[in-house]
Amino acid sequence: MFSMAAASEPQDESNSHLGLLYRLYRTALLRFLTRRVGQDDAPDLLQEAFIRMARAKADPRSVRNDKAFLFQVASNLAADHGREARHRSRLLTSDEIDTILNIPDDTARPADAAQARLEGQRLARALAEIPPRRAEAFRLSRLEGLSHRAIAARLGVSVRTVEAEIRMALDHCAERLSRTQPNR
Hints:
Structural class: mainly alpha
Radius of gyration: 39 Å
Number of strands: 0
Order of helices and strands: HHHHHHHH
Shape: rod-shaped
């Protein structure tokens, strides 16, 4: 005759072995996990390590060294936890998303881009009206960012001449641009 006690003996034996392992290694595993993931998450990972041990014990051939198995599982869980935490830290929270969506868009609107093109065309026309050396000195200074000394060497003139040419070019362009600006 088959008794219920006989049917539950392997399960009880497995549970008692798991309880023994828990009592033997709980403190060391908890200390190990706390060093790796912190005090808040270590108890959860400890529980998960013993859940995995219980599953592995269903197949007696899968675990040869209980302590080594538990510490390897704990190490893997800690590594997974670290990867997950790094992944979570890269994700934006809903508050961060709302903040980003509320940042004003400073990119040029079509009207601003058109206005900038018109100003560029007016500047080109103003530069076309001045002597070539003056226009070149202005271009080298303002567009290419060369020093007055470098411009003087390139144009074969003195630094004072370069300064005067650039000042006259700026005055001419400012006058032309202010004259052609609407609402001025």
